[in-house]
Amino acid sequence: MPVPKESTTGRFDDVHARSLADPEGFWAEAAEDIAWIERWDRVLDRSNPPFYRWFSGGVLNSCYNALDRHVEAGRGDQAALIYDSPVTGSQRRYSFTELRDAVARFAGVLAAQGVTKGDRVLIYMPMVPEAAIAMLACARIGAIHSVVFGGFAAAELATRIDDARPKVLVSASCGIEPGRVIAYKPLIDAALSLATAKPERCIILQRPEEPAALTPGRDLDWEAAAAEAQPQPCVPVAATDPLYILYTSGTTGQPKGVMRDNGGHAVALKWSMRNVYGVAPGEVFWTASDVGWVVGHSYIVYAPLLHGCTTVLYEGKPVGTPDAGAFWRVIAQHKVSTLFTAPTAFRAIKRDDPAGALIGNYDLSSLRTLFLAGERSDPATLEWAETHLKVPVIDHWWQTESGWPMAANCIGIERLPVKHGSPTKPVPGWDVHVADGEGRKAKPGEIGAIICKLPLPPGGFPTLWQADARCREAYFDRYPGFYQTGDAGFVDEDGYVYIMARTDDIINVAGHRLSTGGMEEVLAAHPDVAECAVIGVADPLKGQVPLGLMVLKAGADREDGEIAKEVVAMVRERIGPVAAFKTAVVIKRLPKTRSGKILRGTMQKIADGQDYKMPATIDDPAILSEIDAALRRVGYGKPVE
Ligand code: COA
Ligand code: AMP
Fold this sequence. Notes:
- This protein is α/β, with parallel strands linked by helices.
- Helix content is 31%, strand content 24%.
- The protein has a seven-stranded mixed beta sheet with strand order 5-4-17-16-18-19-20, sandwiched between helices.
- The chain binds coenzyme A and adenosine monophosphate.
- Adenosine monophosphate binds next to strand 25 and strand 26.
């Protein structure tokens, strides 16, 4: 599909208006693109607000729609998945027929372990095709997958195991990061010793880079089990049955289990491929992310396959595998039409190859569009990508909870003019508003909390896994009738959305969503730490990185540097390397308001070298200059002139 020229005919606005005026009609029409076993009774069940259910009474199978359906329609020989792994020096191609057969067989492995409809399967895997195969195999038999990102540590894995209570855990012997092999088995063993809801069985994919010693009676070898398995057919599931649980950072160390249903998810994702991304079936779609994140669930696995596209599953980095030309090599070699990644990946490439010299070594004529999400696209990075790739670069905004974009330039409907710094307009189905400090509708240009009017469109999360009360409290109570996104920003006179910050303690590190509250819990557990705060500070590569400030207990008589090193190691050990927590400083006191609230925002401004106002309610103004000095010693704050 060619990318249209920019225009403002009002066509996009009309489609958006229709989606809000008649959601039932709009999404029933979109649902015709999905193969149903039984059609729905009600397009939208509004009987239990704020919990809405799409396509109730409908019956389908998500795996059938992603694989079997395309084989039956004549796409059997087309590539469904291309695995490209510069870290292992290997590539593999699966046609739709081959992927369907591998999935059906692995579904047989799960079924042989007693996994049936509604059972949970936890998937803790690196970026190998078997991760997608395991997800689709769950969908095939109606089991609920919960994928945990490989960069999380054993304790995080254990928390998720205890919440999801999986029957089976699927993993691999190791993951591969540039320059090091990460043995997964010790992480799994540690997680299982911490967890109380231990799965009965672990199925381990042995990788030649570092095979694992299997625990007899508990672990099964993937290959051996698959060789004996009976391929399974697709089982009918209700549209409202859960397809997966994906844990995301909450405001404490206890992650939120975002649930996704089968019917609404399939309808929304399929619709988004043509209308948001402007992609046709048969084209090659590449999302350079990880299956452990929502972006990976939706746009590495489900959406491209539901649409009959070829998806690329890339086990590598934007730089260093082997160089800043890695993305261009993949695009040229697999004829990628659409690339989707996080701005941080482009900042890494720009840092290593500022002039974009490596781009000239590859034929990028297949590339039509670049989509960016996961964090705010800074205009400098966006302009660099536009200049060097000479294709439209589209920032779009979404979250684990939304499952698909909430604001985007929907090039499949009408390509609107780009405004740098904005992910353009709310996507059809999403009714985005801004609330001011008093909860009233903010004026154009006025910053406030971004909220979405309920019901959310199909694909949006129906609730948190077995936690309706927490879901209400976290998302629905503050603004009745709306979903509170946790983001702050504004909408301008033309209806363009701008996402500026979070309203909670979430920070965004290299496109990864992390809770500073969760990190504070780890620091506070150090025996010498009396009080602490973790803030997100600006980082030229990762957007933000966490930084810890600690007040020591009276009588703690060890070197500050030693304690800082220990808390850094503790965060890596308990949350994982992905937290990128590398700096902690000891200070005498934390700045607080007279009512005892820690002034994190002021400390963040000091760390970023920005001007700040002395908060009127601060209990001890002198403390700020001490913090400034402490932060300068570790390379933050305003550079000394
Ligand atoms: N398993 C184990 N460890 C992992 C891991 C995994 N799946 N993924 C990352 N890590 C580790 C890294 O090795 C690194 O460890 P280190 O502290 O020993 O160096 C740490 O976690 C941080 O990783 P990462 O955030 O990837 O930073 P990086 O410095 O290795 O690379 C970028 C920086 C920008 C190249 C990288 O973040 C990137 O490619 N980002 C792409 C964007 C993306 O995928 N976003 C997801 C949402 S769309
Ligand atoms: P996650 O749930 O991990 O996908 O993270 C979602 C959060 O990332 C959002 O709530 C935003 O804070 C941030 N985010 C994602 N996409 C964008 C974007 N295009 N612009 C600004 N922030 C974004």
